[in-house]
TrEMBL record, chain A:
Enzyme class: oxidoreductase
Highest taxon listed in the record's lineage: Bacteria
InterPro entries reported in the protein's UniProt record: FAD/NAD-bd_sf, FAD/NAD-binding_dom, Fd--NADP_Rdtase_type_2, Ferredoxin-NADP_redctase_2
Catalytic activity annotation: 2 reduced [2Fe-2S]-[ferredoxin] + NADP(+) + H(+) = 2 oxidized [2Fe-2S]-[ferredoxin] + NADPH
Boundaries of every FAD/NAD(P)-binding domain copy: 8-298
Molecular-function GO terms, alphabetical: ferredoxin-NADP+ reductase activity; flavin adenine dinucleotide binding; NADP binding
Family: Belongs to the ferredoxin--NADP reductase type 2 family.
Keyword vocabulary terms for this entry: FAD, Flavoprotein, NADP, Oxidoreductase
Protein name per Swiss-Prot or TrEMBL: Ferredoxin--NADP reductase
Cofactor note text: Binds 1 FAD per subunit.
Organism annotation: Microvirga lupini
Residues that bind FAD: 36, 44, 49, 89, 128, 293, 334
Length: 347, 126
């Protein structure tokens, strides 16, 4: 059964900018749901550079990516946003009018549908997706011989499995699939692994015992009549090549970001970015806003602080759509008792 | 803003750029095989120079050595003139299909010693 949710606003992307938009909307009594393809909140800050220090967040001489996300989560806690993680927005359909926008949003994984009065796209560089190695014709084997994630381990029982990569995903799946695979081969470009040391040790002991193979090199071509994979041609650093027989190849090359389905929503795009005005950060479709790294306008700077500002201004316009009959009174959290009540800090 | 003021504000940085000491160039071959000669600026990362000139280099993470979308192949004769890759860069190179002359262009800080540096943009995955 698919869920249906009615809410004021759906925010696409739970990175820092999407998270702060919850705060600005919350102060205006606007409820929101956030959807993100990652299994955790924080976007690039949490996925790409959780430990990296950031020095240009106002008021924080230094904060790490994860530290910023944790603080934002604490800041928006009073507004109890609902998160839909591990889900990608598949379709966004306008079912209202320009004066009274209404949207239907559908996610791919659980097929949850939302009806909302505004949509805020805070999707950064797009949705995180597995990085596909540039190997000729690799697409022809996807879903039959090439997989970028393991959904069901059973699929790989009694298969000749080739895992490519040297990080945690590659090593974890090496250790987990080795017992059920007919033969498991791990391929990496060098003899150094950036995975958890105990997993690396376990892999090394399996190799030493002859229970799996480890090769150094890179895949240069795939063999077998697509979509049936039969092997991979491996090129070593010295230029020599050999073939590893395999039924399936699992490349674990980390994540990258792709615009994905956003391109199909009838929004104007400029070089994979969404043009917006600089008063409301609204797109060419009334009621759909774009804030943070995904938008573009003259003078745009891809800074987290710019995204915070954009969220605050977008929230003002969203208020007009959600409460068309209400006049919006501009207030400060320092002095407004009503805002302080919303934040749970009123004396 | 007054139009003259606006024009001046636009022209001043351009004037400074054009009249600053000539630094040098890098040669970049794009994925279609076309070679571009780009003026380089000391202290800029090679990724930033390539991006600033509008060639298709993604540089998704903005130069933080976290994404490998600025992967280039460096011409053999230049490899020894570069600082060797850090462990962090090697970790990122693990996430693409490399050749022995693979580097991340965000990790190459351009200095006048690199005048004439020759790089080729690496293919991107689908």
């Amino acid at each position: 059964m698919t869920d249906h949710i009615e809410t004021d606003v759906v925010i696409i992307g739970a990175g820092p900018v999407g998270l702060f938009a919850v705060f600005e909307l919350g102060l205006l009594d606007i409820k929101c749901h956030l959807i993100d393809i990652l299994p955790k909140v924080g976007g690039q800050c949490a996925e790409l550079y959780p430990e990296k220090p950031i020095y240009d967040i106002p008021g924080f001489p230094m904060v790490t990516g994860q530290g910023l996300v944790d603080n934002l989560m604490a800041q928006i806690e009073p507004f109890h946003p609902t998160f839909h993680l591990n889900e990608m927005v598949e379709s966004l359909e306008s079912i209202g009018t320009p004066e009274a926008p209404l949207f239907r949003v559908k996610t791919s994984e659980n097929g949850t549908t939302f009806t909302c009065k505004s949509v805020i796209i805070a999707a950064g560089g797009g949705s995180f997706q597995p990085k596909k190695p540039p190997i000729d014709n690799i697409e022809a084997y996807e879903g039959t011989g090439v997989y970028y994630a393991v959904r069901k381990m059973e699929m790989f029982r009694n298969k000749k499995v080739l895992i490519v990569g040297g990080g945690d995903s590659a090593l974890d799946w090496t250790v987990n699939l080795q017992p059920i695979a007919k033969r498991l081969t791990l391929l990496h470009r060098r003899d150094a692994f950036r995975a958890a040391p105990h997993t690396v040790e376990k892999m090394r002991s399996l190799v030493a015992a002859g229970d799996m193979d480890l090769h150094l090199g890179q895949v240069s071509a795939l063999k077998g009549e697509a979509p049936v994979l039969e092997g991979a041609v491996i090129r070593k650093d010295d230029g020599s090549e050999f073939t590893v027989d395999c039924d399936v190849m699992l490349p674990f090359f980390g994540l990258t970001m792709k615009l994905g389905p956003i391109a199909d929503w009838g929004l104007n795009l400029h070089e994979n970015l969404i043009p917006v005005d600089t008063e409301k950060f609204e797109t060419n479709v009334p009621g759909i806003f774009a804030i943070g790294d995904i938008n573009t306008y003259p003078g745009k700077l891809k800074l987290i602080l710019s995204g915070f500002h954009e969220g605050a201004l977008a929230a003002q316009k969203v208020h007009r759509y959600v409460y068309p009959e209400k006049k919006l009174l501009f207030q400060y959290t320092t002095s407004s008792t009503s805002l302080q009540k919303k934040l749970g800090v009123a004396a | 803003m007054h139009p003259i003021r606006r024009t001046l504000l636009r022209l001043i940085p351009e004037f400074i750029r054009r009249n600053s000491r000539f630094m040098g160039v890098i040669h970049v071959t794009d994925r279609a095989g076309q070679r571009h000669t780009l003026e380089a600026i000391e202290g800029w990362r090679v990724m930033e120079i390539i991006r600033d000139w509008g060639l298709p280099i993604e540089g998704l993470c903005g130069g933080a050595c976290e994404c490998a979308t600025c992967h280039v192949f460096v011409a053999e004769e230049w490899l020894d003139k570069l600082f060797p890759p850090t462990d962090e860069e090697e970790d990122q190179l693990d996430t693409v299909v490399t050749k022995p002359n693979s580097r991340l262009s965000c990790q190459i800080l351009w200095t006048p010693e690199l005048d004439g540096l020759e790089v080729t943009l690496a293919p991107t995955g689908a």
